[in-house]
Write a structure and sequence with these properties.
Blueprint: E1 18-20, E2 27-29, H1 34-48, H2 63-75, H3 80-87, H4 91-107, H5 116-130, E3 140-148, E4 162-170, H6 174-181, H7 193-196, E5 205-209
Length: about 220
């Protein structure tokens, strides 16, 4: 706890909660006042024997989920499909998946869906992309678009003008909601890379910047 010099009473704004997982490089803290941040970080570095701290643009209410998302970002390289297939390759995962499929078939043995192939494709894609286990809990995700307007014959005078847009998703678990879009028929797979990679970027805010042509300045891209 940190006490403000001008006050002799403990207040919620002066309390900082921290969670540290032994043998891991991650420390999770509650919101702290800017004037205290420097001293708290210095104390943590000295206590844990580290020389510097790197901050992640990642926040949420479920600490275990934040730890899982941080681990996903730094532990492995490669596509999200490979990582998730490795994580879900346990016998328990395969058994539970087989049991659920058998239960669904027994419940719907008299129902013949007309779009069976399409539904199977959506389920297979979702499993390969997001894995078979529940997603870590993340309550807020924001996408920020910075690009040039393409009129498409609608507003020629605005062509190549700066176009900025912010889209925010919020709920009890945004990642699980994204995962459910395909099977529910609310989005058409395959998803763009900035949606497929969401469980592994380790951040709440994703910047989508238009790639510049050679000679237009520094290269842009997706962050």
């Amino acid at each position: 706890m940190i006490q403000d010099k001008s006050s002799t009473v403990w207040t919620p704004s002066n309390i900082v909660h921290m969670v540290y997982y032994p043998a891991s490089p991650y420390i999770f803290t509650s919101t702290m006042k800017a004037e205290y941040k420097k001293y708290i970080i210095q104390a943590l570095l000295l206590t844990l024997g580290y020389s510097k701290a790197q901050f992640m643009d990642l926040s949420g209410r479920d600490v275990e989920s934040l730890a899982e998302l941080a681990k996903r970002k730094h532990s492995q390289k490669g596509s999200s499909r490979v990582r998730l297939n490795q994580e879900d390759a346990s016998p328990e995962s395969r058994t539970s998946r087989k049991r659920r499929k058998q239960d669904e078939e027994s419940e719907n043995e008299d129902v013949i869906p007309e779009d069976a192939e399409d539904r199977q494709w959506r389920e297979d894609y979702t499993r390969e992309t997001f894995g078979d286990e529940p997603q870590p809990i993340l309550e807020n995700v924001t996408y920020k678009l910075q690009a040039s307007f393409k009129h498409g014959g609608v507003a020629p005078s605005m062509d190549d003008q700066p176009f900025h847009m912010t889209v925010k998703f919020s709920g009890s678990n945004v990642l699980e909601g994204m995962k459910a879009l395909g099977p529910a028929g609310l989005a058409e797979p395959p998803f763009p890379s900035y949606l497929e990679s969401l469980p592994h970027v380790g951040k709440n805010t994703i910047l989508l910047a238009e790639r510049r042509k050679p000679g237009d300045g520094d290269d842009g891209g997706n962050n």
